[in-house]
Design a protein that fits this description.
The protein is an alpha/beta fold and about 140 residues long. Helix content is about 20%, strand content about 30%.
Length: about 140
Amino acid sequence: MQQQISCVTLGIADLARSKRFYVDGFGWTPVFENPEIVFYQMNGLMLGTWLAKSLADDTYQATLPRPGGSNMAHNVATQDAVQPLLDRLAQHGGKILRNGDAPPHGGFRGYVADPDGHIWEIAFNPTWPISPEGYVTWGV
């Protein structure tokens, strides 16, 4: 079976607040939106931000589990790009959980939560080069 993820969908409370973080903070452009959901075309997959109530209804759940049991990562091309992006995301509704620093396993990273508590690692990893299309590759 092909190893791939087609879409990651995050349950959110407020579409405008979420868009401020993803559009103004990350600088991403929506490819589709309606009053309940916004999709962003990523490098090889889609990221959706969907009103939590609508997402719960769609999955036949009364409520969604709280975020925090997982996190997503956004890699940047240089170590010097980590903290400025963390700061920019915080200016657009995010909350810095850990400022950029060097972990024992190498590279440089920090953590920020989006307005709904979804955790993003902002990372520079010198062994994960980023292609012009934004793809990262393990250990190249």
